[in-house]
Amino acid sequence: VGDSSVLDCFLKPNMTMVAWKISPKVGGPCILGYRPDTDKTERTNCSKNMNWKFKPEQNPALEIQHVGIAQEGTYTCEVVAVDGNFHKVYHLTVLVPPRPRLYCDDHGSPVCEAAAGKPPAQVLWVLESNPTPEKKGHDNGTVTVLSRFTACSTNVTNTTCMVFHPTGNWNQSIAC
């Protein structure tokens, strides 16, 4: 999320048309098209952050700037040329890094939270514990994972929470 993404397509000699057909998971379809014979580009229902990376006749790659969850979906590049029709399909999945936090609750127990990540983060404790993480889904497709540390012995004074996610890992220690 937030980065730019470039999706490549075929560059064929004697192209008669190239089009990106975009079907996002949310919202309606979008089409970016180009015809070399008229040197015209057309766009239908595409957000302003989606456009040709270069001139389509030189390289028909699609650039998505500031990728967000709304851009998740299927992206199909279709090239029509003298020697046939060519399709390239991408399934774009957007990763959202969670916001990790470690704190002590009102009962003096450590709580580890990985807020609004996509996919949900994995939360683990370094010392022995048998937590059952709570997961709360949000309307935008992200998930918050909350884990309370439950010690098997009473001599635990300091513990470490670890958060694992495809966008990066995090750990922090606390004494409650």
TrEMBL record:
Keyword Transmembrane helix: yes
Keywords from the named record: Disulfide bond, Glycoprotein, Membrane, Transmembrane, Transmembrane helix
Domain of life: Eukaryota
Membrane-topology annotation of the record: Single-pass membrane protein
Chief location bin: membrane
Pfam families tied to this protein: V-set
Cellular localisation: Membrane
Keyword DNA damage in annotation: no
GO-annotated biological processes: regulation of neuroinflammatory response
Occurrences of domain Ig-like (ranges): 1-79
Membrane-spanning parts: none
GO molecular function annotations of the record: signaling receptor activity
InterPro entries: CD200R (IPR040012), Ig-like_dom (IPR007110), Ig-like_dom_sf (IPR036179), Ig-like_fold (IPR013783), Ig_V-set (IPR013106)
GO cellular component: external side of plasma membrane
Family: Belongs to the CD200R family.
Identification of the protein by name: MOR1B protein
